[in-house]
From TrEMBL:
Pathway: Porphyrin-containing compound metabolism; heme O biosynthesis; heme O from protoheme: step 1/1. Carbon 2 of the heme B porphyrin ring is defined according to the Fischer nomenclature. NCBIfam families: cyoE_ctaB, PRK04375.1-2. The gene is ctaB. One of its GO terms (cellular component) is plasma membrane. This is Protoheme IX farnesyltransferase.
Amino acid sequence: MTVLDSETGLGHADIGLSEATARDYFALLKPRVMSLVVFTAFAGLFLAPGPINPVMGAIAILCIATGAGAAGALNMWYDSDIDAVMSRTAKRPIPAGRVARQEALAFGIALSCFSVATLGLAINWFAAGLLAFTIFYYAVFYTMWLKRSTPHNIVIGGAAGAFPPMVGWAAVTGGVSLDSVILFSITFLWTPPHFWALALFKMRDYDDVGIPMMPNVAGEKSTKNQMVVYAVLTAIAGVAPALTGLASPAYAVFAGAMGAYFIYASLKVRAMPEGDERMLPAKKMFGFSILYLFSIFAALIADRAIFMLFG
């Protein structure tokens, strides 16, 4: 049964059973976000010292993917009220009335328990505990508190998306190390300029729902300046694997070039006039930021694969 929200007039499957399809439940997992999470987790697992049975490795990645999807479903459950108002999210399964809120909640909790228990039983309980903490961090600490209470929500909350390579690393080694912390740092430092680029051209949406994103609270100028700082830090972190021996000098050259362009993109955003409705530099930086993170982790994987084959 579907009811209408009295304030927004949008359909919400808030009570009863929805007529959701498998595609709707898959959408609850935030597949585009999950794909990047899975890729960075695989990089952590692949780069970690020590062997892992391929079947066990596949199970570990599946558990991490399921856990990431579970966190996404819990995020959509809690944020369904603001998702209904924002243009970017209004067509998600819950605000569109295709999935009932309580079904999304049950789905998220079930997947969370399954992913953590399976990872613990099949691989090791340290990795499982780290995955459980990641889900809690994103679904509770970030979604239920940080997101709606502070303009630093993305800075602090970004750790949730940065943990997967550490989980992948822990699946092999049973612990963490300096190298896994560096992998964490790349995504952690990348997250603020990535999301603030989006927030700049979606300021009106965040204003409408009262989410204190940095551009809305501190203003465009301050946000742009901070984006440059984080872009520089991201570029440095991107090269760091070569400094510890995790990657080769060839990787360092590639990562340095990508980092330099990331900084250049942030400077273009900084030079963008305030109030520019087109926001083209911010949109371009947002798109490039996704390419940057994918390319850095792909280069790390390729660098290690080449070393294994020819080193």
